[in-house]
Automatic annotation (TrEMBL):
<feature type="transmembrane region" description="Helical">
    <location>
        <begin position="192"/>
        <end position="212"/>
    </location>
</feature>
<feature type="transmembrane region" description="Helical">
    <location>
        <begin position="63"/>
        <end position="81"/>
    </location>
</feature>
<feature type="transmembrane region" description="Helical">
    <location>
        <begin position="32"/>
        <end position="57"/>
    </location>
</feature>
<keyword id="KW-0813">Transport</keyword>
<feature type="transmembrane region" description="Helical">
    <location>
        <begin position="320"/>
        <end position="340"/>
    </location>
</feature>
<keyword id="KW-1003">Cell membrane</keyword>
<feature type="region of interest" description="Disordered">
    <location>
        <begin position="1"/>
        <end position="20"/>
    </location>
</feature>
<keyword id="KW-0812">Transmembrane</keyword>
<feature type="transmembrane region" description="Helical">
    <location>
        <begin position="265"/>
        <end position="284"/>
    </location>
</feature>
<feature type="domain" description="Major facilitator superfamily (MFS) profile">
    <location>
        <begin position="227"/>
        <end position="413"/>
    </location>
</feature>
<feature type="compositionally biased region" description="Polar residues">
    <location>
        <begin position="1"/>
        <end position="13"/>
    </location>
</feature>
<keyword id="KW-0472">Membrane</keyword>
<feature type="transmembrane region" description="Helical">
    <location>
        <begin position="102"/>
        <end position="122"/>
    </location>
</feature>
<dbReference type="GO" id="GO:0022857">
    <property type="term" value="F:transmembrane transporter activity"/>
</dbReference>
<dbReference type="GO" id="GO:0005886">
    <property type="term" value="C:plasma membrane"/>
</dbReference>
<dbReference type="InterPro" id="IPR020846">
    <property type="entry name" value="MFS_dom"/>
</dbReference>
<feature type="transmembrane region" description="Helical">
    <location>
        <begin position="296"/>
        <end position="314"/>
    </location>
</feature>
Length: 413
């Protein structure tokens, strides 16, 4: 998902070393929060249907758990294929206009989801409209997520990049934490159609606010080819993918898992995951600088795997809630810990490109997890989905240790 970036440019474009005018710390914080608010709105629109959508596809429309997983994953595939284009759009049109276009795409997504709800008596048409809605949402997410970071950095200066990244990530998962239970309430009280209408209204508001915001200069810069950068960061991206499988599994199947266990409160498991993520970001923002990305990644993967194993073996909803929280706590620093090491593989002028290529693996993992975990659930049951995700997180431990050893050997030679 696009909430993260560990360099001043997530598109490969260098940015100015400082804001045009000196800003007080209080003003910097206000500017950052104002820009991160666009990310918050989009991820609120993403979070609201998250706990409701799998059940709608599987139970209301009558399709399999694989199709339910694919319905979630369409969004991530759309983000994956549009990430490079988002970078080019920022370079040529500017971050503000990129955010505006992303908001319009997300608004169209909400409208299509509303039509899908109205077409429920015709299940296939409803499913087609829903898939189109998810694709538009993924395209919009890519533009707003990348654009908001670059817009914020352009407004407060590159020296405040870390603060911008931190607040952008907090906005993302705070919105998901709020959105999941809100979506359940809206669905139960006003019906599924209200999910689409709410998403549309939120992102129309985002477009209006973005249109009134100050534009920042378009900065051009030479960069390596995307394919070359992708090869350089491939191993680190695979580590990110291993960690992301846990989030994708929880986001897609926690609702059906709770229903299968005859438990209530599935939306609060998503809230626990997101709240723990935000808490970890706030509490441990400086540990990567202190201990290095590889060591932090190992601890994060271990914590995430423990949480996923707890979800797999949970006998009560309280244990499942704890497992989701631990998984979110561990996942919180996976992206920046390996991302810091990935961007150090290239020159400063290409660090944005490295992060853009690195982020592709998050999108790809989220896209693949839905149908793959759906197949596992269909054959082996929903608890096994989280065992599969835990094994992937343990693979992240092994990969991080291997990368750490290689880095140490390279430093000695």
């Amino acid at each position: 998902m696009s909430d993260d970036s560990c360099s001043p440019s997530s598109t490969g474009t260098p940015v100015p070393a400082a804001a045009p005018r000196p800003l007080t710390p209080a003003k910097v914080t206000r500017q950052i929060i104002a820009t991160a608010f666009f990310t918050f709105l989009v991820y609120l629109a993403i979070g609201i249907p998250m706990a409701v959508l799998p059940g709608y596809i599987h139970l209301d429309l009558g399709y399999s758990s694989v199709i339910a997983g694919l319905g979630i994953s369409v969004q991530y595939f759309a983000t994956f294929v549009s990430r490079a284009n988002a970078g080019r759009m920022i370079d040529t049109m500017g971050a503000k206009h990129t955010v505006m276009r992303g908001m319009l795409l997300c608004s169209a997504s909400g409208g299509l989801l509303l039509l899908s709800a109205l077409a429920q008596p015709l299940p296939f048409l409803s499913l087609v409209l829903l898939f189109a809605s998810r694709a538009f949402l993924g395209l919009g997410e890519s533009l707003v997520g990348t654009g908001a970071i670059m817009w914020g950095v352009g407004r407060v200066g590159a020296e405040n990049t870390a603060k911008m990244i931190s607040w952008n990530g907090i906005a993302t998962y705070a919105a998901l934490a709020i959105g999941a239970p809100l979506g359940v309430v809206l669905d139960r009280s006003l019906g599924f159609a209200m999910i689409g209408l709410t998403g549309m209204l939120l992102t129309v508001l985002g477009y209006v606010l973005a249109r009134g915001g100050p534009a920042t200069p378009v900065v051009q810069g030479e960069q390596l080819s995307f394919k070359l950068v992708l090869r350089k960061v491939f191993a680190y991206g695979m580590g990110l993918a291993f960690g992301t499988i846990g989030f994708g599994s929880i986001a897609t199947f926690i609702t059906l898992y709770y229903a299968d266990q005859h438990w209530s409160g599935a939306a609060f498991a998503l809230t626990a995951f997101s709240s723990a993520f935000v808490g970890a970001r706030l509490l441990f923002a400086n540990v990567i600088t202190r201990f290095g990305g590889y060591r932090v990644a190992v601890v994060c993967f271990l914590t995430e795997s423990v949480g996923l194993l707890l979800l797999w073996s949970a006998t009560t909803p309280a244990l499942a809630l704890l497992g989701a929280a631990l998984a979110g706590f561990g996942f919180a620093l996976v992206f920046p810990s390996l991302g810091v090491e990935a961007v150090n593989l290239v020159s400063p002028a290409n660090r944005g490109a490295a992060l853009a290529a690195y982020s592709v693996f998050l999108d790809l993992a989220l896209g693949i997890t839905g149908p793959l975990a759906g197949a596992i659930a269909g054959q082996l049951g929903y608890p096994q989905v989280f065992l599969f995700a835990a094994i992937a997180a343990i693979g992240g431990v092994a990969l991080s240790l291997s990368l750490y050893r290689s880095a140490q050997q390279g430093a000695k030679s």
